[in-house]
Each structure stands twice: as C-alpha cells, then as structure tokens.
Amino acid sequence: MALGSKQCLPCSVDEGVMADHISPLESGQLLSQDIPMLTSPPPPPNIVNGEGPQQVILVQVNPGEAFTIQRDDGQIQCITGPAQVPMMSPNGSVPQIYVPPGYVQQIIEENGVRRVLVLPQTEFHPGGHSPLHHPPPPPPHAHLQAFIPHPHIMHPHPHLYSGMAGGTGDMNPQYISQYHPAHTTIYSEQDTHPPHGRAAFAHRDERASKTYERLQKKLKERQGVGGGGGGGLALSKDSPPPSPQKSRGTPPSGGDLHNGLGGKGAEEQAQPSTAVTGLGKSPGRGKETESGELDEEAKALQERLNSICKPVVTDIQAKGASLSWVAPSQTEGDDEPTEGEEGSAEPSFMYEVSVSYCGKDGKYKSAYSGVELSATLQDLRPATDYHVRVQAMCNCLQGVPSEPVSFTTLSCEPDRPSPPRKASGTKSSLVLQWKAPCDNGSKIQNYILQWDEGKGTDAFEQCYYGPQKQYRLTKLSTASRYYFRLAAKNDMGVSEFSEVVHIMTSCSVPAPPLSPELIQSGVTWLCVRWHRPAGSPKEDEISYVLEMEEEGSGYGFQASYDGDELSHTVRNLHRSTTYRFRVIAYNAEGKSIPSGVSEFTTAPDRPGCPCRLAVKGKPHPTSFRLTWDPPKDNGGSDVTKYVAELSEGLSGPSWNQVYSGSAMECVCDDLSPGCSYQARVHCISAGGESQLTEPLQVQTPPVPPGPCQPPRVVGKPKAREVQLRWAPPLVDGGSAVSLYSVEMFAPQVDEGWEVYQGSELDCTVGSLLPGRTYGFRLRAANKAGYGPFSERSEVTTGPGAPEACRPPHVTCKSPTCAVISWESPPCNGAAVSEYRLEWGAAEGSMQMCYTGAALSHEMRGLLPATNYFCRVQAVNVAGVGPFSDAVLCQTPCSVPAPVSSIHTLRESEMRVEGSRTTERDEDEDEEDEEARPLLYSPSTCLGLRWEAPCDHGSEITSYQIDLGERQPILTGPVTKYIIQNLQPDTTYRIRIQALNSLGAGPFSHTFKLKTKPLPPLPPRLECTASSHQTLRLKWGDGPAKAQPTDSLQYHLQMEDKNGRFISLYKGPCHTHKVQRLNESTSYVFRIQAFNEAGEGPFSTVYTFTTPLSPPAPLKAPRVERVDESCEVSWETLPPMKGDPVIYCLQSMQGNSEFKQIYKGSATSYQLPNLSSSTEYRFRVCAIRQCQDAPEIIGPYSSTVILLPPRVDTPGVSGATGSKAAEAQKPKRSLTDEQFSFLIIALLAVTSILIAVAIQYFVIE
User: Fold this and answer.
1) Which residues pair with 110 in a beta bridge?
2) By three-state DSSP, how is residue 337 classified?
3) Most buried of the four, 189, 295, 491, 546, by CB within 10 Å?
4) Of 120, 103, 261, nearest in space to 179 by CA
5) Residue 1254: CB partners within 8 Å, gap ≥ 6?
6) 558 near 505, Cβ under 8 Å?
7) pLDDT tens across 519-576, in order?
8) How far apart are CA 513 and CA 563, in angstroms?
9) Is pLDDT at 736 greater than 50 in this prediction?
C-alpha cells in the first residue's frame, strides 16, 4: 500500500507498560554493550509495498524511552522521548518490528497512516510463528537480549539495517533501532504484567516444558557439584523466561541463540526453542555468576563442531568447482533422550568455505557462508592449484577448520585479447600490432584478425590467421576508416573477439589554417584558438603546432604547443607585452604552410605598493603632512590614483579615507593633539589596486593643558600653614598632566612666588604669618609645557604663637655673675603671657633657667672665663613661639682654682736630671748596675705630682709648695717636683697653690708625707762548702734560717756567660746552695741587702771555683778461686773529659788493714799463692789522672769476701759438706735493677696488707 511522499511509524507504548520497564537512560547505560542495536531484515512483500524511491518515516519515541542513531560524522546519538525522529527510507519500506514471544504484530491502516500493533496470542507457542509476519532474527551478537523471536533465517536487506556484529562503527544511519520491548511493541491495556516487566505466560508447550525441565536438572546437578554457589540463575517450572532487561549482557551458552534471539531453521519451526540460562553477571539483580565457562552441552557442541570432515570436490571445471560435505556427527557421550521423551532438537549449523590459491599454508579467503551442505565455487582461474576447507559454526561457537583439500582447475580457451593498435601507416597501408592475452593453461597457436574492408558494416572478414603479433595491410584507400577485431586460438578453443577498433589511413598534407584568434588575455597568459583547415576530411587526424614570437626578443617564432586541440593557453608570459602567434597544421604526410601572424598583448599587472611613506616636516598638534614615492613596479601601466587612509590608535580597528588623487602627498588635519595615528597608502592603475603599505605610526605633539579651577582650602586654616587642594584641568592637551605649580601672593605684594611644584592634587603651604590674607593661583603642565594660571583665591590664616624674640643681651657683673635682658617680640594677635630663658655651657644642651613675665634675669654661680649660651622664647594663648638665636657670652678671667689632689712619685720616677733615662721594670733583675739610672734617695727626698687646676682664663705661671716651718718653695709651671735635703724617716705637712697673672689662687688641702729610712749596706759573702756541682755560700752573722720578724732581706746574684747578673736568691736567709754547676769552673757572685727603706748598694763581686769531679763508685768486684790463686775483675769506666781513668785494687788478709795490691788501667787481677786457711777481702776504686792537677781518687766499692776452703771430715754428713761448699762461694751484692724491683715488691705487698686491714677493720 503506497503512502505517498511521507510515512509515519508511531511506535507508541502504553503508559502502564512503561511503568513496569526500566529505561536504559534511567539506569545510566546509554550506549554500553548491554544496550544492543539490532539489524532488521527487509520486510516481506505482502506487508510493505511502498513504491516511492525515497520516503520519510517518522519514528515516535515515547516518554522515558531512548532511540539510538548514528549521525553522518560517525558519532552515536541517543534521543530520549518524547520525540519524533524523521528517517529516510531509500525504498519506501517500513522498518521491521520484533516482538517478544507470545505476541504477534498486526499492521492497521487508518486514514492513510500505517500503525503497527503488538497483540498477545490466544495461545502461546514459543516455537511457533506469527500468522501475519515472520521477522527473521538479526546476525549473532554476544551482548543482545534473550528474546526468542520467530525462527526465520533471512539475510538483511542492504538498504535497510546494517549489521552490528562489527561494532558501532559499521552502522548505517538509515535505520538504527535500539532493540527494547518498550521501543518496538504495543501492549493492550487489558494485559497484565508481572513486576519484572514480562507478560505471564499461562500456556506452555509440552515439549518445551520437558526440555526446560531437562535443562533445569542439568543446572541443578552442576550447582550441586560446585557447592551450591550462586553462579547460575535457577528458574522455577512455572516462571516465565528471564526478562530482556535482566538478561542484558548474558552471553548465550545454549545451542539455538541467533544474535541474542532464539531461532530455528525453517524446517524446525514445529520444534520448541530451548531457553538456556546465561553464566555472566545479571545487571538487573547485581549478583555475580560464573563467567567464561561452557556447560557440558556447550562443550559437547564444541567438540562436535571440531569433528567436521574435509569437503569433497566434484565437477571440477576451468572456472568453477562443486563442493559437498557432511554435517558434524553427534558424539557417543551426548545425552540420549529417556523413554517417553521426544528427541531433542537438532542444532542448526552454519558453514563457511574458505579457499587458498597460494598453497596449503597460504592465506585463505571466504568463498561461501550458509547452512547448506554443498557449495559451488565460481570465478576461479583456469589451470590453477587450489586448497579448500570448511568450518562449522553454531550460534556463538565456532569449530576448527577441516583439513584442506587440493584440486586443480581445467584449462580453457584464451582470455579475450586487447584490441590491435596502429604501429605505422601511410596513405595506402597500415601496420597493426597486438599483445598476447592469457593462454589459460594452453599455448596460443594462432591469432585471428578480422576487418570490415572499409565498408562500415557489421560484417567482418578474416584478413589474417597466424602466430605473429603484427600484420601489414596494403592497397588501402587514402583517408579511409577501417574497423578491426582480434581473437586468439589454442588447443582448447577460440577466445572471444576483442573490442572493435577503427583505424584510418593517412591523408595528404593539410592546407594552411586561418590566423589564430584571441579568446582571453591575462597578466601572464594568453588563451588562443584556431580552426581546422578548410577542405580537410573529418577522418584525417590533424595535429597543430602553435608558434609564438616575443616582440623585440630576436629569437623568432618558437613552438609553444603541439597537439590536436583547437585552443591553447600560453602561460609564463610577461605582462603588458605584445606576442606574435601563427599555427601550422600537420598529419602523417607532412606540415602545412604557417598561417597568418596574429599579435596579442598581455594585460598589465596590478602595481606594487607606494614606497617610503613618511611624515613631511614636523607633525602639528592637529595635522601632519604625508608624503610617499611612486611604486617601484607599476605593473606595466601608469598609476592613476593614490588613496591614503588614516586610523586613530595603534590597533587600527577602523580606517577612514583622507585623500584620493594623483598627488604624492596629502595633509591630514582635524586631529587631536597628543594622539597616535596610523596611516597607509595604496595606488590604483589599469592593472588593479596595489597592496597597502605597512602602517606608519604618527604621534601628534601635545599642547599645554587648559586652565584649572582655583585651589580651595581643606579644613580650617592654621596660623602658619594652609592646606590646599585642586582638581585636574578639564583639557589635558593630549598628554597626561605631570606637574602642578602653585604661586602665593603675600599681603600688599603684587608679585607672587612659587610655593609648590609636584604631581599631587594637594599641598600644604607653611611659613605663613598668623592673621594675614594670602592669594593663591594654580597652573598645570604636561610634556608641552605649562598651561595658563587659574583665577586667584584668597585665604586668611588664623592667630598664632608669638614670633621669635631678638637675641638677648648679656652683661657680666663679675666672673661668677651675669645679667640677661631681652625685648618683647610681635605677639601675632595675642599678648605675651610669659618668657622662657634657657642657659647652658653648650649650645645643644641648654636648660630652662627662668620662666616669667620679666624682661631680664640675673645668673649667679658661674665659672670664670667660661663660655655660656642663652636664648629666649615668648608664649601666649595661641602657643609657644620659636626660640631666639642663641647668644654666646664669656665670663671674665680670675685667679686659678685650688689644686685638687697631690700624689707621691714612685722610686723609679725619681730620676736625677742628666742621668740615663732608660726605663726598666722593677722585676727585671738581670740588668747591670750601669744600665740603671741614678735615682733620688727616698730617704732624703720626696717626689710630688699634682693635677693642674683650672687657670680661669689666665695661664698658670708657677706653683708654691708650703712645707710648714720651712720656707715655701716656688716652682715653675710644672706638675711634678722633687723636694731634696730632707730628714730620713720624717713626716712633713705639704700644701700647694697655683699662681697666674691675676694673683695666687687658694691653697689645696694639706697632705702628710713621710721620708723613708736609710737602706742597709751589703754583707760579706763567703763560700763554706764546695763540690764539683754545688757551692754553699754564706753571708752575714745571723742564723742560717730566717726569723719571721726579720725585715732585712738579701738579694744574691750570679754572673752568666753574657756578663749579666741573674738573680739566684731573694729572701731573709743567710745561706744559699748553688747547684747544677760545672766542675772546675769559676763563678762570680754579688749580694745586696734591702728593707723597708729600700734597696742598699751591691757588694763587690766574689769569685768561687768548683773542684774537679771524682770518678764514679764501682760495683763490687767479682772473685773466682782458681786452685791456689784467685782472679778479681771489675767494671770499666770511660775517660772523664779527656782524663784517663786507672783502678786501685786493695786486699785485706784476715784482720789486717787493706793494702794496695794493684794499680793500673786493667780491669782484672790474678792474686797467686793464696793461703788455704785465711779469709781475704777485696775492694776497688777508680782514679782520675788530671793533666794539671793531682790524681783524684774515687770512692771504693763494696767489699767482697773470699772464704778459705774447708776440708770435710769422714764423720761429717753430706749436709755439712754442702753447707761448707756454699760458704766457700763468694757473696755477691744486688744490682740497682734488682734492688729497685725488691723495693717495689715490698711496697706492693704493704699496700695490699693495708687495704685488707682497712676493708676488715674500718668498712666492716
């Protein structure tokens, strides 16, 4: 039924149904994999019969629903209801509507509008089909909903819905439908719906129920093995299949799901469909289930698909072959139906055949896909080896390809050859050539060339038969057209003839053509045309040569074109240049005479932009003059006009034309001072307009600003300052105001002076007089200078403090008294109430000394000859006036002040005049007597020192020292004096006064000073004992040890190697032992006595000499008895300072005295003829043999006893004999090391015993 140019498809849904369904937009899943997009096959011809070429179909989207389409740019768009989406149908058909199981669709036409109704069946058969319409399922897809549509397998129409198996990018924007029940179905209001949105199916097919129970049993068995985990979704016997919303995203694992919808082959429509529960996650419930596992039935199906046998090739032809194969057989382990049950539905298989012509392991291409068990391969190559294999598929499962089968196509006749071509020709002959076509497995033996003999009919005659690939035809007509075709022949037959081609013979030389004509001219090109020579036949193939000559080049005519066209555009020419053209026609016979010459001129080019755009002269505040030069390149024609444009500002938003003419300068006026402008120029000629010049920036100079408003007073005027404020001028002159100048006019003065200059808008004018009227005026300045003054404004100051007094007058009545007087200053409108006088010795540290209304003040207690400063200020009710200038005054001179303090000189400072003045410290006793200066004796002299008092303006000429009963001593202007010829140990009362030219000052306080007693004389020094390293000296008659009451002390000194005396002893003792001396050396000593009176003189020097040192004592000699003699040996001593050392050995026999038995340098001696009954004693000493002195005998060593041998009696025991032997052994003394070790051991033992005693008795 035709609907005209428009069709409307209202896919409306009942509102009650909408409440039970969950919209994809509400769940947040717009374009995820859980929202499938289905393809739709073309509608059956008995339902939709639109005849229009293209029609618009309106798709109505209800509220809460979504419609997904793909735009032209490839983007996916989701349209939510309510909306009507116009869609273009290329063939006028209505898109197919899919319905859920248990419903049928019915198309009703009302008022020319088709409406699709979805109505419930009176009895639901899952495997049945609608009596009105059988919509086929879309291609398989893993993410589509588990609806079970009618089981038709149909291929989609290419003009309706494209498949979605490849992803969203493969969609066709003509029809894109989101498969959802609410989008495509209409439910009646009388239907009832369960909470999950699917209709309750009351009737079930018996076979379907048995199949469902069997699958439910398998599912329970698998869950029992897994411990009852919540992986699967158990379905009750009477519950309907899962709703589309809750099973979205569940990949089917059963056998008969096609694109997410259950379907069967056309031959199995009567069998029930099998509902298989998915193993994935259910979005509707949010529960996790087992994923990625196939159940036992799916595994069995996969093994069945993998067991397909290789195909069988039959009926092999040159360009085709037939294949057949056997469906995969059922394995032995598959479940067998029990008794009473009908056989389970056989799954529907699809097969894909792929072919490879590159060998067994080459790349395979799909050649067939379908459900049939045979296929025919077309368009194969003859005499070619092929490998073919088959692969089985069922729903989402895909088997392994079978083993490939190889076959070779047969040979056949050659391919259709290409038409022959003309190799060469003359007026009466043609030479034709051709290429060999594909021989298709059999060598080409001959070629068949046919022609029409120039008759122009479709009747062809053979003109050549042979193996050559070229042929020459002769005796032909001039300028005649001949038609040819070619065929190839091999053992298998003759190929098809090639396309018919016409070839002409040559003609005579063409006639000269007419002169060329100009079609159009440009700046660098000329378009020229010409005509075919008159009288030339149409069959004659004439070509043309266009020759061109540039005027003035001197090269003559040059070929610029060679071809068969009758027009040509010559490019890359010069502008405004004349060119000459002629044409020559030629064919195979030769060239014609050149045509007549035509002259054409290229058009001029547009000129370049003007040069050197600049400002002529100095810019004025409101105008400036622009000048420029003509362009360097005028484009081949003269410039006719220049156009100047001006823009205000540097951004150039708008340009205004200020000049248009032939002159090369112009004046830009009516400008604003101090503004920036941009100017540009372009020129116009016959070639067009030039480019604009670069903008020239011009700055007009500013002018001084306009007058300001008079300044105004801020607040109440003060007595000595006024604060003024003003506003900027209304006209700034094109430049910002940078400076303001304020002038002030004093009362009764005509000339003013500047009191402020700056950039601020206010100022404070100070140093004014109180109660006066002042005038002020203002002017502003910018870069151009100062503007005019404003009008004058009058300001009156308030009353103020008095002015500064004149400097006061100071009169000195005496050196310690002065009188200060001053005058009253101007009061500035208020009477002076008091005066303040400041007085001080320094100008910066004056202090207030008077406050009152008097005009004078007397200062007492001043210092004579001292500088003083003073100043005064006046005070009234308005405030305190400034101080007057400080006045310096000086008191008169007077007698000196008394001496404040007197000190005694130290003894080191009491030097005799003219003596040596080298100073030394009292502790340096190393200096000799000659280096010490001569000092006055403190016993008969007193040294005085005092501080000079103030001279009171007159220099001190002398000092007078009063000693009481003695005559006063008059000194010069010194501060140190030594009084001589005094009595020792006597007290004197001393006072001092200073004298100057004005008289004597007062005496100082009285000081008591006492002379010291006379120092003691040195004692006599003598040596009481001496050794080679020490000297014991003694002096005086007192005891050797000092008494605590002795005040007399002694100072002993010894001369060193440098001739200086160094201190050895200082104290009250009368003896001293000098140690660490050298032997046989003379030492010089002197001594001095001192007490409280001072140090006495040194004695004369005494010389004492140390004796030579004796040899060191030897250790006990060693004695060894040898028969009747003995050998005595001792240690050796080295020579002593060059003096040799000899030894003296003494022996004592019995109780007699020691006698010398040996004297010499040897260290051993053998004594013969010893008495066997006598005891011998030996000792040895060293003797130093001095060169200039007698020998010095050293101390003897310890004695060694040699006992006589005893004869043992027979009755004496062995013990007695051993004791006698021991007694005969000489006794040896301990060495120094052994003796030291013995002492240390005894000390250690003693310490340990003491510690044990302390631990035991004290601590415990």
Assistant:
1) 113
2) coil
3) 546
4) 261
5) none
6) no
7) 999 889 999 999 988 877 777 788 999 999 988 788 889 999 999 999 999 999 888 8
8) 14
9) yes
Give the tokens for residue 448.
């068949």
CA 247 to each of CA 197, 252, 259, 624, 1103: distance values in angstroms, whole numbers, following the listed order: 12, 10, 14, 86, 138
Contacts 24+ apart (CB under 8 A), 1041-1046: 1041/1069, 1042/1067, 1042/1068, 1042/1069, 1042/1070, 1043/1068
d(CA 898, CA 1112): 79
| 1100 vs 508 pLDDT, higher one | 1100
- Tokens 């060495």 locate to 1231
Q: Which residue has the tokens 């404004």?
A: 793
Backbone angles phi, psi at 285, to 5 degrees: -100, -20
What does 658-711 look like in DSSP terms, one character per residue?
A: EEEES-SEEEE-SPPTT-EEEEEEEEEETTEEPPPPPPEEEEPPP----PPPPP
How far is 978 from 963, CA to CA, in rounded Å?
Answer: 13
| Mean pLDDT of the region 1188-1215 | 73
Q: Which two tokens stand for residue 520?
A: 């159009």
In terms of C-beta density within 10 A (0-12 exposed, 13-18 middle, 19 or more buried), how is residue 405 classed?
A: middle
pTM score of the predicted model: 0.32
441's tokens: 């497995």
Handedness of CA 1073, 1074, 1075, 1079 (dihedral sign): negative
What's the one-letter identity of residue 392? A
Q: Residue 945: CB partners within 8 Å, gap ≥ 6?
A: 902, 903, 904, 905, 975, 976
d(CA 311, CA 372): 13
* Helix (H/G/I), strand (E/B), else coil: 722: strand
- C-alpha distances (whole Å) from 974 to each of 545, 772, 879, 970 are 140, 67, 56, 11
What are φ and ψ of residue 1254, in 5° steps?
Answer: -60, -40
Task: Choose among 496, 379, 492, 497: nearest CA to 443.
Answer: 492
Strand, coil or helix: 188: coil
Range of weakest confidence among 8-12, 533-537, 1170-1174, 1196-1200: 8-12
Query: Which helix (H) or strand (E) covers residue 1000, if one does?
Result: strand 999-1000
How much is the CA Rg of the chain, to the nearest whole Å?
75
Q: Per residue in 450-500, pLDDT tens?
A: 999 888 888 899 999 999 999 999 988 887 888 999 999 999 999 999 999
**Is the peptide bond prior to 82 cis by the omega test (within 30 degrees of 0)?**
yes
Nearest residue to 1059 via CA among 1167, 1187, 1172, 929: 929
Q: For residue 666, which phi and psi values (nearest 5 degrees)?
A: -155, 165
CB 805 within 8 A of CB 823: yes
- The rounded distance, in Å, linking the Cα atoms of 113 and 47 is 14
Burial of 88 (0-12, 13-18, 19+ CB in 10 A): exposed
The DSSP secondary structure of 452-504, one letter per residue, reads -TTS-SS--EEEEEES-SEEEE-SPPTT-EEEEEEEEEETTEE------EEEE
Q: Is 292 exposed, middle or buried (0-12, 13-18, 19+ CB in 10 A)?
A: exposed
CB 437 within 8 Å of CB 483: no
Spatial distance between the Cα atoms of 838 and 858, rounded to a whole number of angstroms = 12
Largest CA distance in the chain: 192
From 191-200, 368-377, 1028-1037, 1207-1216, the region with the lowest mean pLDDT: 191-200
- Residue 444 near residue 436 (C-beta atoms within 8 A): yes
Q: How many beta carbons lie within 10 A of that of residue 935, not counting itself?
A: 17
d(CA 524, CA 635): 12
